[in-house]
Amino acid sequence: MNLQKGIRLHLHNYDFTKMSGRIEKLLAFLSETPNDCFLNHALALEYVKQEDDEDALVYFEKNLEFDPNYVATYYHLGKLYERINDPDSAVAIYAKGMERARAAGDNHSYSELQNAHEDLVY
User: Fold this and answer.
1) Contacts of 72 (CB under 8 A, 6+ apart)
2) Exposed, middle or buried by CB within 10 Å (0-12, 13-18, 19+), for 32?
3) 28 shares a domain with 17
4) Which domain holds residue 37?
5) In a shared domain, residues 31 and 86
6) What is the per-residue pLDDT across 38-92, written as a single tens digit (0 to 9) for each?
C-alpha cells in the first residue's frame, strides 16, 4: 500500500470524536497539501501530546520519507522511539539526524541530536 493511500485509509478509520481542534485543522490543511513537512511534523507533535504514539509515528515517518532533510523530525521521532521503548531505533534515528544536521550546517540541531544520542549510548 502506498503511503498516501495508507494515510487516506487511516483518516477514514479514525475516531474523530477524540481529536483536538488542532488535529482537525491540521488534517484539513494536509488534505490540501499532504506533503507539507511543517504540517506533518506539527500533526505528529499533536498526536504525541495526546499520547497517540501510533499516529505520531505515522506522520513523523511520512515526513522523513518525503523529505529526509527535515532535521527537526529526527529529534522528536527519536524521543518517540524512546517513549515506546525502542532505544535501538532511537539511537539509529538520532545518528541519521546528526548526519543530516551536519550536512545542513545546523549546529544547534546537531548538538541536540548528539546529546540525545549520547544519553542512550553512553
Assistant:
1) 41, 109
2) exposed
3) yes
4) 1-67
5) no
6) 999 999 999 999 999 999 999 999 999 999 999 999 999 999 999 999 999 999 9
Name the pTM for this structure. 0.81
Using one digit for the tens of pLDDT, what is the confidence trace for 12-43?
455 554 556 999 999 999 999 999 999 999 99
Neighbour count for residue 80 (Cβ, 10 Å): 22
My answer on whether 12 and 55 are in the same domain is yes
- Alpha-carbon distance of 122 to 119, in angstroms, equals 6
- In this structure, are residues 92 and 117 in contact, taking their beta carbons and an 8 Å threshold? no
* 29 and 5 belong to one structural domain: yes
Q: Each residue of 46-74: b (16+ CB within 10 Å) or e? A: bbbeeebeebbbbbbbbbbeeeeebbbbb
Domain end call among 67, 83, 98: 67
* Number of domains, the chain: 2
